[in-house]
């Protein structure tokens, strides 16, 4: 004997109230029994319809399955941050509208949070006023997969999405009516593809949780980035010409500490590392959480206790912590903050990447082809801004202004190395961190 189902109900309620109507074995086959008519007998046939889950970006999730005029099945997802009812994807994670708005305001306004405990419970409580700890809430947003670079600038929403696609096409397809500055190869596309390959090689580490680092973490991070830097030079002609021109020269060592001070490759590598350091700090929420995030997912909080733990391998960590606090804070609060506030897209980021690397090469040691590449690159970026109707002079100028903070970041990193060298590291393990 069959029982007529109620108009609405969940899986569990339907099974408890009508055990003969629902067969639990049907759940494993991703289907559910659907009765063809509301008035039926024991001889009525049962049809099976698959349950299809539909996800829409930024919208409320649709019900996974619907009974034909009888029962509507609806599953509700919860926010990965506060466990409240989720409304869709926000900046890369399933979350409620409140957590999505909180994350957007934190990044766009570049707010800085602090917490003494740093392990507060983030849970939605409608009876509690004032909300939960902002530091721990933003930290959980980052750990849950929210991406700061997905937050757009406040006025960038006025541009149509179609114009962004038009910009990418204008970069990758040279115009037949372009001037004599039109390059034979598309420099921007080459740089964008190179950076995509670099991020793809970091993908296995991207989902790993961040952990508190140490001086050994810094050494391992720089060794790994130097390996990627060598691969970039070997596979990318534009970067190779920046360092060696048309010659057949190669990097003579696989250990960056063996590079002499003042050597062009060393100076360009330090800029490369600072650029990736700022990118990882922005992606890891370091600007808001007041911490320096290394490319290998280790971090150091910008406070005295965290600095002492970071330099615990040194014979005098307290002195070194006080001396290095300023340079480390400068990389986060000046360099990384400036890059995050610019809201660079993929093209502008590649443009800044090359301009910063080329600026690390002294003018008297710069190859002629490097200047030609810089000119072609600026032409391509200006043309891409024109394609979306933006003021290319202002956009390009604002991007070039970020080269200065990056150069200051390199100076801060070299200052940290110098402090390590003169404060006692030279007696034992300085060769692991610094060139002799």
UniProtKB/TrEMBL annotation:
A GO term, aspect molecular function: zinc ion binding
Statement: the UniProt record of this protein carries the keyword Mitochondrion: no
Subcellular location: Nucleus
Start and end residues of each stretch annotated as Disordered: 153-181
Domain Nuclear receptor: 76-153
Main location: nucleus
GO cellular component, one term: RNA polymerase II transcription regulator complex
Amino acid composition bias (Low complexity), ranges on this chain: 170-181
PROSITE patterns named in the record: NUCLEAR_REC_DBD_1 (PS00031), NUCLEAR_REC_DBD_2 (PS51030)
Keyword line: DNA-binding, Metal-binding, Nucleus, Receptor, Transcription, Transcription regulation, Zinc, Zinc-finger
InterPro entries associated with the record: NHR-like_dom_sf, NR5-like, Znf_hrmn_rcpt, Znf_NHR/GATA
SUPFAM superfamilies per UniProt: Glucocorticoid receptor-like (DNA-binding domain), Nuclear receptor ligand-binding domain
Protein's UniProt name: Nuclear receptor domain-containing protein
Species lineage: Eukaryota, Metazoa, Ecdysozoa, Nematoda, Chromadorea
